[in-house]
Amino acid sequence: MKVPAAVRRRVGELRKQIDYHNYRYYVLDDPVVSDAEYDRLMRELEDLERRYPELQTPDSPTQRVGAAPVKAFGEVRHQVPMLSISDAFSDEELADFDRRVRERLGVARVDYAAEPKLDGLAVSLRYEDGVLVRGATRGDGYRGEDVTANVRTIRTVPLRLLGTGHPRLLEVRGEVILSHAGFEALNRQQLARGQKPFVNPRNAAAGSLRQLDPRVTAERPLEFFTYGIGAVEGGDLPDRHTEILQQLRRWGQRVYEGIRRVRGLAGCQAYYEEMAARRAQLPFDIDGVVFKVDRLDQQAILGQVARAPRWVVARKFPAQEEMTRVRDIEVQVGRTGALTPVARLEPVFVGGVTVTNATLHNEDEIRRKDVRIGDTVIVRRAGDVIPEIVAVVLERRPRNARRFVMPRKCPVCGSDVERVEGEVVARCTGGLYCPAQRKERIKHFASRRAMDIEGLGDKLVEQLVERGLVQDIADIYRLDPATLAGLERMGEKSAANLVAAIERSKSTTLARFLYALGIREVGEATARSLARHFGDLEPLMKADREALETIPDIGPVVAEHIVNFFRQPHNREVIEKMRRAGVHWPRSRPEDGAGALAGKRFVLTGTLEHMTRDQAKERLEALGARVSGSVSGRTDYLVVGANPGSKLARARALGVRILDEDAFLKLLSK
Ligand code: IVH
Question: What's the CA gap between 493 and 484, in Å, rounded?
Fold first, then answer.
């Protein structure tokens, strides 16, 4: 069938528009059309291509996915080798690099392009007349694998360059990565499908790109950032690296926006510090920064040695992953009795600190990672997060490596350990009898975001519990300077300071107090919603599961924990003791707009059979309702007991809903 000229034009137009919107969305992160509009354009193009198959071309935005799986990747010879970069591990090594560069060039100061060193895998994209014709991995630098079908599925890889003036042949080089969010999403999916999760984003990116079935790659949230070029023929590019990157960006390539031109060694050092500080907040992993002599004529003078150019250096960050050995696996008992296995490690310097422990979270996690005592493991510490065991190096497993077994008795108090069906956590059943739980509860109670008792640190809490001076949190309010001054490392002055701090903590807020109680699953945010909702402690203590579940963010599990907590006579006693000691907070009105009866106005009249009027009032208020003395046009319900007064007639006259006791009880139990 002959393709009408108008259709041909329209197809061209649609592709241009879609390519541009892809660029706005994926590269600039600044879309200019709605998703719906984009979908309409895409559908129109797909439709036309279906009707006129001769218009289908590989660079069409409809053609990202769909290539058939292969048995093996073809081999690609890199026209210009993909070299590596020499590393600098210290300021001195970086200074040496800069000195060598200056000496060879015979100049006093050099301009560098400063870039993050992305932790993924290097890929080359070959564009001929602006159309992507091949994607290849780095391989050994000379020969890589042909992964064209796979790179085409990456949304940030343009299938066709935007704009005009591209060289006839342009090889774009950069890094394929997975962001943290993408990595976590992928691992969640792996686990849900019963497959092994990936160890880190880099491995996951490499594994995803090297799938023989491009449809699998297409499902992986891979991203591409360009940092340079390879072969170029039939066209001109700017004569500075930073300007080339800007040109590539105009042609639709994604270039990290934090790439800068810096002046001299001082500029490099400032950039390194800046990126090191930002590292933990970046959405993807970087393992250092790269400095490249910016002027291409200077790059040419410098040339290369062995397998690395002399014009580039990678200033590496301290490694976030290192290998070490698991000496033992011990169990720690937390505030709620949760038993957490902790690996005791041979000390290892990682992420800028010496690490000797790493949490193993729970039994299932140990099984999943198959960590055994004696194993060599990869430990990771990123930012301020708790060090973690990423994986076991199985090749190094000694014959006598021992499996960990969760103890049946609490290692601290000897009580039974239980693991509830369906839960991952094993717990000590010792409750407040268990000194470990007691200590942790007290530490939590005194912590800054809870009651904020300055000076009541970990060491002191341990002494207080071990000497039986503090059994429960209320005992804190009975400590006196004389008792405290008798403790280790406690002078009279610090004892007096501590007593003053304890005194100060009595004046608090309901939210802090609730958080400090250490009710399971009640963190700061939940404590705040509870305080806002109920306004005071009494209505909360009386609330049942249903009432609690009406509060946003409180589900059945948390509701259950809260109800359970306040049901325990012991807990009620401790709270009472603290209030008697003077712990107080400003009460506020229960919040409108929350609770089963939130904002509803009630009036009571007559005598109820099952409760006093005061009790009825409390129950209503616990559900967020307001109770007033007289019926008005704004009254929602009148509750009528035996021998009602004149209120009933007034309510009838105003059309207020009337509830007898049965209906009222039903409403309360809803
Ligand atoms: S330039 C000759 N720039 O690091 C220089 N590489 O250790 C060629 N990498 O294979 C590479 N971020 O995979 C360059 N901003 C960046 C980079 C970067 C990460 C990777 C790349 C390369 C490896 C070399």
Answer: 10
